[in-house]
Amino acid sequence: MMRAVHTVSACLLFLLSSASAANCPTNGPPSNAQWRFTTSFPPGCSGTACSYFLGVRTNEDPLFLDFMMEGNARGWIAVGYTPNQAMPDADVFVCALIGGQVTILDTYNIPNGRSNMVDTSQDLCPSSMNFVNGRIQCVFSRAIKTNDVLQDKALNQSYYQLSGWTDATGSSMAAIAYHSPTAPKISVSTLNPTNASSPVTAEVKIDPLIRAHGILMIVAWPVLGVMGIFFAAWMKPALPKAEWFQVHRAAMLVSLFLGCVAFLLIFVAKMDTRGLVSFMDPTTTAHFAIGIIVMALHVLNPIISAFRCTPAHPRRWIFNLVHGTCVGLGVELLALVNVGIGLAIFGNKLSLATVAPPLAVYLAYVAFLVILIGALFIIYTVIAIKTNSPPLAPSVLKPLLALITPSSPDPTKTEVVVDLTDKAKDPPTGGVDTPPKPPSKDAPLSNHPNSSSLVMMAEHYSPFHTHVPVMVL
């Protein structure tokens, strides 16, 4: 079925392209044509070393311009001219591989958006078209002025030049596929195609809304999300008066607000395109899917916390496991992965050299977090086992340690705030040894046989809690 659609589409496009033959020059550009101005990526490349190459010259008939486009693309390559440094209201010439055949298309971007449409009046005159070894090439001509004043630009005026290419393919003549993951390059200044004579310098323009989306997500997750989870998971012994909870709640609420704003911004930025994401590209598909999951869980977790039971409830450990570990830590890990994918997408749109430094810093930061949290997990677990105190263990291990240390306080009964201060002991009276008091729920280590060594360890351990968040932030 799809093969038939491709074949019919290609035939229709060929007939549509041929309809403009009446307004074509007598001769097309020669095989050894010298191009008056060029655009290439990487800049200054030649031949197959170019991911994209465009050459423009004046035809033997001075009423026409000749174009030659080629590049590494299995979908399409294109050049467009627009009065503004953006996609809307552009006249776009496309060399597309549709249904296994190379076709020249005269298209335009609608004035109020970036959606691309095929022009009903095809005014391009093809000379040669081919697709060999993954490179697509089209040589064609177009009148400087056409009768289609609505969609065609007069090429003797000054415009910004758009250059784009992609492996994404289309299956019909309704419109070309979206250029993902690459972004179009836009000339830094205007040029007149009729008399320009120097190589064109171009760069990628990132939508400010998309840039804001990335910045807000970085603040929401690698900064605020990490801080909120860190204080809830590891700072309780150092902040026994619930200061940790105030920091945790504030950080996660601000993170939720910024995340929601960033989530809406990407929808607004993509509102005038034919879809939020190109599913032809696995990177953007993964970023889109993970982002939906992350935001859904981010909104769900505060709702879960609203229905939490009291700290003394026997099932409180279930809430801690679901809210803190399964959803809280799980969504943070997904978010950190997705931020990395987002940076990779920026690398595709800009260049690897541009994004490599911040991406390296981000990966180093994530590696530091993994090492730090792994070390704290081991330290807390060892202390909990050696002191026979499951309340000190990470939340995910508390029920397990309670089972293997039944003589210790039950971690499901309460969230214990451990008192590690060295309290004065009552002196023995009458020469009779006073039996040791059983540990209380509020201070399970206060009467431990090794309490003095524990206190010494705590005196060194508590400052460790205080300095680690400073290191993270």
Specify the number of helices: 8
Termini separation comes to: 56 Å
- The overall pLDDT average reads 78
Give start-end ranges of low-pLDDT stretches. 1-22, 411-431, 441-446, 448-473
Structure classification: alpha+beta
Question: How many extended strands?
Answer: 12
* Element-by-element helix/strand order: HEEEEEEEEEEEEHHHHHHH
The main sheet orders its strands as: 7-6-5-4-10-11-12
Overall geometry comes to elongated
Radius of gyration, CA atoms, in whole angstroms: 33 Å
Helix fraction, binned, reads 40-55%
Most strands sheet: 7 strands, antiparallel
- Measured by DSSP, the beta-strand proportion falls in 15-25%
Summarize it:
With 473 residues, this protein is α+β, with helices and mostly antiparallel strands. The protein has helices at 2-18, 208-234, 243-269, 282-306, 316-349, 352-386, 398-404, 451-472, and strands at residues 37-41, 52-58, 64-72, 76-82, 91-98, 101-109, 116-118, 124-132, 135-143, 160-166, 185-187, 202-204. The longest helix is centred in the C-terminal third of the chain and has 35 residues, at 352-386.
Provide structural commentary:
With 473 residues, the chain is of the alpha+beta class. The protein has eight helices and twelve strands. The strands form two sheets. A seven-stranded antiparallel beta sheet has the order 7-6-5-4-10-11-12. The chain has a five-stranded antiparallel beta sheet with strand order 1-2-3-9-8, with no helix packed on it. A hairpin with a 2-residue loop joins strand 5 and strand 6 (101-109).
